[in-house]
Amino acid sequence: MTTFDAISDRLAEQVIEVPSWAYGNSGTRFKVFGSAGTPRTVQEKIADAAKVHEFTGLAPKVALHIPWDQVEDFAALQSFAVEHGVRLGTVNSNTFQDDDFKLGSLANPDPAVRRKAIEHNLMCIDIMNEIGSTDLKIWLADGTNYPGQDDIAARQERLAEGLAEIYAALGDDHRLVLEYKFFEPAFYHTDVPDWGTSYAHCVALGDKATVCLDTGHHAPGTNIEFIVAQLLRLGKLGAFDFNSRFYADDDLIVGAADPFQLFRILYEVVRGGGYGADSGVAFMLDQCHNIEKKIPGQIRSVLNVQEMTARALLVDADELAAAQRSGDVLAANDVLMDAFYTDVRADLADWRSSRGLPAEPMKAFLASGYQEQIEADRVGGNQAGWN
Amino acid sequence: MTTFDAISDRLAEQVIEVPSWAYGNSGTRFKVFGSAGTPRTVQEKIADAAKVHEFTGLAPKVALHIPWDQVEDFAALQSFAVEHGVRLGTVNSNTFQDDDFKLGSLANPDPAVRRKAIEHNLMCIDIMNEIGSTDLKIWLADGTNYPGQDDIAARQERLAEGLAEIYAALGDDHRLVLEYKFFEPAFYHTDVPDWGTSYAHCVALGDKATVCLDTGHHAPGTNIEFIVAQLLRLGKLGAFDFNSRFYADDDLIVGAADPFQLFRILYEVVRGGGYGADSGVAFMLDQCHNIEKKIPGQIRSVLNVQEMTARALLVDADELAAAQRSGDVLAANDVLMDAFYTDVRADLADWRSSRGLPAEPMKAFLASGYQEQIEADRVGGNQAGWN
Amino acid sequence: MTTFDAISDRLAEQVIEVPSWAYGNSGTRFKVFGSAGTPRTVQEKIADAAKVHEFTGLAPKVALHIPWDQVEDFAALQSFAVEHGVRLGTVNSNTFQDDDFKLGSLANPDPAVRRKAIEHNLMCIDIMNEIGSTDLKIWLADGTNYPGQDDIAARQERLAEGLAEIYAALGDDHRLVLEYKFFEPAFYHTDVPDWGTSYAHCVALGDKATVCLDTGHHAPGTNIEFIVAQLLRLGKLGAFDFNSRFYADDDLIVGAADPFQLFRILYEVVRGGGYGADSGVAFMLDQCHNIEKKIPGQIRSVLNVQEMTARALLVDADELAAAQRSGDVLAANDVLMDAFYTDVRADLADWRSSRGLPAEPMKAFLASGYQEQIEADRVGGNQAGWN
Amino acid sequence: MTTFDAISDRLAEQVIEVPSWAYGNSGTRFKVFGSAGTPRTVQEKIADAAKVHEFTGLAPKVALHIPWDQVEDFAALQSFAVEHGVRLGTVNSNTFQDDDFKLGSLANPDPAVRRKAIEHNLMCIDIMNEIGSTDLKIWLADGTNYPGQDDIAARQERLAEGLAEIYAALGDDHRLVLEYKFFEPAFYHTDVPDWGTSYAHCVALGDKATVCLDTGHHAPGTNIEFIVAQLLRLGKLGAFDFNSRFYADDDLIVGAADPFQLFRILYEVVRGGGYGADSGVAFMLDQCHNIEKKIPGQIRSVLNVQEMTARALLVDADELAAAQRSGDVLAANDVLMDAFYTDVRADLADWRSSRGLPAEPMKAFLASGYQEQIEADRVGGNQAGWN
Lengths: 387, 387, 387, 387
What we know:
Chains A, B, C, D: Keywords: Isomerase, Manganese, Metal-binding. The first copy, chain A, is α/β, with parallel strands linked by helices. Chain A is about 45% helix and about 10% strand. Chain A contains 14 helices and 10 strands. An 8-stranded parallel β-barrel of chain A has the order 1-2-3-4-6-8-9-10, surrounded by 6 helices. A two-stranded antiparallel sheet of chain A has the order 5-7. In chain A, α2 packs parallel to α9 (about 295-315). The longest helix of chain A has 21 residues, at about 110-130. The first copy, chain A, is globular, with a radius of gyration of 21 Å. The relative contact order of chain A is 0.15. Chains A and C meet through α5, β7, α6, α7 and α8 of A and α5, β7, α6, α7 and α8 of C.
């Protein structure tokens, strides 16, 4: 197996973007529980996100969600972030919460609603220009609940038209990242339900359009690492939304439900050239901390990605290739499992110490008193959530 | 095949209980859309529910959800219902929306929270006494999101204790109906996730405890009609919550996603003695009309159940048994499919006319002007929803 | 709703190709049950298939599976088929039963095995030339059972190379139809697991490559009609393999498990221009009659497709479009359901009679004595199966 | 976390029963690949199984499958096993491969077939008496492929009757272990599809009847460890059939698909008192080595169970309980994950050495020359498989 020393520098390349909305409240249709210390403003969200980076060194970027994070002066917001040690990153457009979007946004049968959805995305590109962001991420809640409710084929054409207009407005260094999702909130058909649909639209749009793979957005049993390998091969994997799930789109902490799956995904990322600063593949989290504390939840998440990335990097590529070539099924599997079962935590603690980071970020954060402070300070106001 | 005439009287036995909450707004974690004419009070909900019965003759009972439908004077509410031509039915307890219930209710690790959950159910029994209701329906959102979060086995014992205390408070003619659900809102384990768990608890409780089968609460691919047959055989099928789904617990209109499945379920109900006034099996709806109009959505739902019940009753039991005994797979399947493919709609229209009901309830309701009237009248106030 | 008269001529366009292997024995890994009258030779399979066409008028073509249907003189086999009233159709290559293919065929790590797999497909093209067939259908059992067993990305490149060489050998009027499958016989990853992968390869190959959609080859809950609509829109839907399933790739009689799904699929086929002689979309069956009699099983299957096609054609497109445009969810759904719930069987019986076909093909076949005759005649020899 | 020393003795209690059929060939309905060195006789299977025990010390028992392992003199077979260092264990009845069982065995509509199936099980009890085995394991392939094919409810009664007759023939120290399976080979309904059904029958039968949980026999997404906890609580968990799966009943090496799931299962086993000699819970493997070598496949399997048992034993119960009581979701999860991520392999190697076992069983076996020898010796004859 590869030694930890040999992968040390590669680990330093890791950048994980955290979502501003992870620090607000979230829940299910049954209940959104409040929690002490929850941010009331986008500035408080950024301050919390900055703590994740401070303690881990892994999360220098914060993704925005518009309109949840709408402010008058985005340049000032960027300055605020930089003062806290992070930068604003991907801009996520939201076309699913206005009453107009009840029957869809870019695929809505009503041209006026489609126009509104396009304009919202164009406005997001304006924000990208203000903050120097490169990525516009589009996730569409579009779909139908009942067979016959709308014309599936016509909706694809409307979608293609809307995306084309948005794409045309991108700057030279911009990207459109199109996310797909198996189902929810639509329960019969979804307009971008699978990687194939996102891929076909991105190919039609052009080089600046790539696919976003949310690890929770697949049918039961789907082999996600295969999709990773396929999209990397096709040159269209733009970003990950990491999280984990046992059932549907549960949005649990990445690696919590199936750590081995996360390992296999990261192995294919590394194998396919999707890891590192020049890969063009953005690592993002998209999770819901419904019942656990949010900042520690995010710290746990980026650490899970880091620990599993370390294991993926440890796979001995030559040994594996040799076993594969020889057709020795058990030996090839063993090479992979050997890396997975390696406990990298002590090595990572040393690695962090050597870089001026807390050896144990979770403990260091819990001991820092930050959580107690925000719980004491943030009294009153409206806790941030998905609205 | 059996003739429609031969099943005419049996159709007259059908009673479907509608949920008060179907008339309020519902949605997903992403958005609850408002809609014109939505009730602001429980009285308005009952008035709407009464319309479903008026136009179909199928829905004489309205289920309550406490605290959503909490009022000071339940006897007065019952009178209000009766004046509108319906009666209050099953009382549904709700132990998932108080902040205390973040980590569960009857299975919560904190005894004070468990006490609170028990008291809530005892209060629901008081309401049952006030309105003369026989059924307490318990659906628990209890579960955990992360492995290790709580002790699965200990939670079962706490659950058993809590249920026992509630059960002990039931009156002589009361029933406790325990619903199970595969997942959501808990995403790792659910404390009553399958019929086996609900059944085991009901057996331990006694004769007054029975299982509620919600048709949307199963793992993908589960053969629901088998569970129906099994619970009927074991004498523990107490009630249905009807709805339909393509993915998770989508709560679409019953019969909308898989009409053939609804047919198979109703066939097993009829076959196993679960149909009719004396069967002890309550038919209820539990649906979400997130984007469609609610009263027509309910009318469509009860009609779907009625139409499919008619088809199930049309199955020629003798012919089927003969084909089954002979081992003729295709012939036996054909007997069943013959009934399913029979278009019963014209016969049902005649049947309704002969009983003084509108031949086409949906059209009659749409022509009645009721929807326009409530949309005009119900301006201002807080539209009812899941809170 | 559209009248039956209005769709009468369109029904006459329907051609369903039946698979030679449906007449042989099939089963599960646990057991392949024999059955009286099963063909011992490809000629007997064709004779049986011809009966399906004789009684239904729907199945003038028989697909071959090589090497199961290997003969010395394919021109003579075509003549034999024509004498029986049918023609040989699609040629299915088989690269999963030789010991060499244990670790895959076109994606095998061993170049010698890949060569063998390519040569087998080239030989199938020779057979196509001999019989005048236009379609080479490729389904690959390729995949791995264990993570790490082989390099997922490298396998895609090998696959692409192999397909390219086969594609290059196609004649001007030939097509390569690439089937995808979610899983089985590989249990970790499959090399062509989804429509996106098949589509990406077909695009890379060129215009003569199209996707084959087997209705049983998807993850649980997948919206298949969406894929139909998408592939039609992208111009890459080449063929269907019809069957049905409750769980995995059960290969039950088409329409048996979820008739409403079959209806929705056929509606999208009609809607998207995939129906009829000039559509370029081949309708094929791919089923296993493990326990039911095979010829009646095939007759039931083509009738199911015909009955559901009739219902799909009955959908009133204008009425549906109007409801969709108005955003009336329930009304739009009702238009679709109205066609689905229409009992077309009596009209179809008349339609058949008027075209010189038995009004009730199943009854006519059972009364014909053919089954009894082959059960009496076909004694001894080796019953055909999957080997 | 608990120390390895503290669990050392408990690891010595572990007994895993291996199935005789794992050493024969297996495959899918598409192909059963042969492999060099495969046993031709039950004696050769036992000899191979004995090697697994010799190198691991974990597998002193071999389960039989009747009639696959039928011999004239079972006492002699037991002596043969003992000479090789193992003993014969559970007797598995097989009522799914005779032509008579095409439509089921204990639930068959034909009383003569039911009689035959009962007699087969009684004969298995005779074998148990001959070899001193305590467990009769019954897995039934019974079910139907098409709705209507047979009467689901009537089949339950037939099943109950048949089981009762078999149960009555058990000796004082015998157990009947009833396995359930979600689907396959039946594709519409299965007569014992879930733990609830198996449990209800076992309760009706009596104390000597318990449930067998095959880890691959559940619907997608099912929380298996919950079922473990529930059955232990109810006193009805009799045995495990270990294996793993990504999709359906893939029968891959235990722990290969989802090692974390195996950990969670074993944690609940330990937690619920299901671990160790006196627990009454038998650990068995039930796997298919379709493409990998069989003896190393079995060695890998028992080692996977051992390694994961060690991790499960390492969980600090007090620390976990404290975190659970405090409602600290992340802390409780961390306690569990800490044990899971601990690399126990070096400690286990030392543990083995100290007990006279090879530190690295897999390497030791590969170096032993046994595989080469059987490949050279076992030429000719019919390789054992599922028939």
